[in-house]
């Protein structure tokens, strides 16, 4: 069964049940109130008739023919009266009974009740409502009138309810059908877009087609946002694959060219050696690029829960400095350390974060002047530890600042001429974020460039705030070291 039909039937069924329950309650109360008023009037009239009959003849009281009264609205109708001995023998009856009043044992009521008992009868097809009251000490009086007025009122109430029930359920069906169609229209639009996205159409959107409830419009907006984000991720993945293929193609093409050139004719041993050295350089580039690609793929799947044991900041700095020492010696760049918190524990993988910091150091060394200095500066705050890497190079152009962490981006001019895969900074940021931290570029630093690696404190080690420590990572403390 379709959702539209289920919703329509549910709304209509609930409305119908509510109407029926309401009518039953109203019917019972109306019937009870009308019968209560009629019984009270009959009891008053019966007691009055019994009193008059006893005053006329206390030894043999007889009730004659006459009219009875019905209240609400007041009217006069034929009365039905019969006298019985306590043993059930009929003494007398009015002509309205036609000589055939009901036997006393057929009346389902207590004949010894001093207050009188209400009874429901039927005589000659006429519904009667009456009361049984004592008549003297040895007789019982049955006094009744037609209950047709009460039955007519209840029948009228039933007809009114039938009309109201039909109208209300019909209106509910129409409104429920409209609401269900409006809701299902939004659901159909969302399903249509979901199916389109499943087939690869990432430009599909629900948009203004969702016009129903606030919830479905919000769901449509969230779906459109998710599709847009998915499109961005797919586009980013395609760009990454395209860039990776391009970066791999260059050293492979060079390597192939060197080998083909070497095989065209016989060469001397020095020439072969030179060709092999160039081929080895291309192979090294390929290995480096493959390592960076593999590291990025692994870092995107890491979670902070995978971090190893608490690691001291000094160990990370020492490992990164040692790995970057070769590049520093080639360019005669001195790497120095300054700051506080070397013994502070951070929650991360020592080897991975050391590689991220090493990438920052390699970047700083590559863009420092020959014989320059790269400063590693640490600062501890309540939120975590900041490790800044500062170089004295030409810095970063403002228009390039937003592209620094883009995979394979190497900039123009001097930065592009330095070579490399263009994955160092993006890989370093991925590692830092996987550890619960981040890497940012400080555009306010000058001259040169300043990158800041932030790491969270280790949750496994209770630490006290060091003297002079601040709540926000800012300028480092004055403590220095080498």
Question: If you had to describe this structure to a student in words, what would you say it looks like?
Answer:
This protein is an alpha+beta fold. It has three domains: about 5-155; about 215-300, Signal transduction histidine kinase, dimerisation/phosphotransfer (DHp) domain (Helix Hairpins), CATH 1.10.287; about 305-455, Histidine kinase-like ATPase, C-terminal domain (Heat Shock Protein 90, 2-Layer Sandwich), CATH 3.30.565.10. Helices cover about 50% and strands about 15% of the residues. The protein is built from nine helices and 13 strands. Strands 1, 2, 3, 4, 5 and 6 form a six-stranded antiparallel β-sheet that branches. Strand 4 and strand 5 form a beta hairpin. The two termini are about 75 Å apart. Residues about 305, about 415-420 and about 460-480 have low confidence and may be disordered.
For the structure shown, list the relevant keywords.
alpha+beta; six-stranded antiparallel β-sheet; Helix Hairpins; five-stranded mixed β-sheet; Heat Shock Protein 90; single chain; 9 helices; 482 residues
Overview in brief:
The protein is α+β, with helices and mostly antiparallel strands and 482 residues long.
Q: What is the secondary structure topology, with strand pairs?
A:
Elements: H1 3-56, E1 67-70, E2 75-85, E3 90-93, E4 117-123, E5 126-135, E6 139-146, H2 148-198, H3 214-263, H4 269-300, E7 311-312, H5 313-323, H6 325-330, E8 334-339, E9 345-346, H7 350-366, E10 373-380, E11 385-390, H8 414-417, H9 424-434, E12 438-441, E13 450-455
Parallel strand pairs: 8-10
Antiparallel strand pairs: 1-2, 2-3, 2-6, 4-5, 5-6, 7-9, 10-11, 11-13, 12-13
């Amino acid at each position: 069964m379709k959702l539209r039909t289920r919703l329509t039937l549910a709304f209509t069924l609930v409305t119908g049940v509510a109407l029926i329950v309401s009518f039953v309650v109203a019917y019972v109360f109306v019937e009870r109130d009308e019968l209560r008023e009629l019984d009270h009037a009959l009891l008053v009239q019966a007691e009055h008739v019994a009193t008059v009959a006893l005053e006329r003849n206390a030894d043999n009281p007889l009730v004659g023919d006459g009219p009875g009264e019905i209240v609400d609205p007041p009217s006069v109708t034929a009365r039905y009266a019969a006298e019985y001995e306590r043993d059930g023998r009929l003494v007398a009856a009015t002509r309205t009974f036609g000589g055939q009043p009901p036997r006393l044992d057929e009346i389902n009521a207590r004949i010894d009740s001093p207050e009188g008992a209400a009874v429901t009868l039927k005589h000659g097809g006429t519904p009667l409502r009456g009361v049984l009251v004592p008549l003297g000490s040895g007789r019982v009086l049955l006094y009744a009138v037609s209950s047709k007025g009460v039955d007519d009122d209840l029948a009228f109430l039933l007809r009114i309810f039938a009309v109201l029930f039909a109208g209300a359920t019909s209106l509910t069906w129409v409104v429920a059908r409209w609401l269900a169609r409006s809701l299902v229209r939004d659901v159909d639009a969302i399903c249509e877009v979901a199916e389109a996205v499943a087939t690869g159409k990432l430009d599909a959107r629900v948009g203004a087609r969702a016009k129903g409830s606030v919830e479905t419009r919000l769901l449509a907006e969230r779906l459109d946002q998710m599709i847009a984000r998915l499109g961005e991720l797919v586009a980013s993945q395609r760009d990454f694959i395209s860039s990776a293929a391009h970066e791999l193609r260059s050293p492979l093409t060079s390597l192939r060219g060197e080998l083909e050139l070497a095989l065209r004719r016989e060469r001397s041993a020095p020439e072969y050696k030179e060709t092999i050295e160039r081929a080895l350089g291309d192979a090294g580039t390929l290995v480096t690029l493959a390592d960076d690609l593999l590291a990025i793929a692994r870092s995107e799947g890491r979670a902070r829960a995978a971090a190893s044991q608490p690691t001291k900041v000094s160990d990370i700095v020492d490992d990164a400095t040692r790995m970057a020492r070769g590049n520093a010696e080639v360019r005669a760049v001195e790497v120095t350390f300054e700051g506080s918190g070397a013994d502070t524990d951070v929650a991360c993988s020592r080897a991975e974060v050391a590689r991220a910091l090493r990438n920052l150091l390699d970047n700083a060394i590559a863009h420092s002047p020959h014989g320059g200095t790269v400063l590693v500066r640490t600062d501890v705050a309540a939120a975590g530890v900041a490790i800044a890497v500062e170089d004295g190079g030409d810095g970063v152009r403002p228009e390039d600042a937003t592209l620094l962490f883009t995979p394979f981006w190497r900039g123009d001019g001097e930065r592009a001429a330095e070579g490399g895969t263009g994955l160092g900074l993006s890989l370093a940021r991925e590692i830092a974020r996987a550890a619960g931290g981040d890497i940012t570029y400080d555009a306010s630093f000058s001259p040169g460039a300043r990158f800041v690696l932030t790491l969270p404190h280790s949750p496994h080690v209770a630490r006290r705030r060091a003297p002079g420590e601040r709540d926000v990572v800012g300028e480092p403390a004055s403590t220095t070291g080498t």
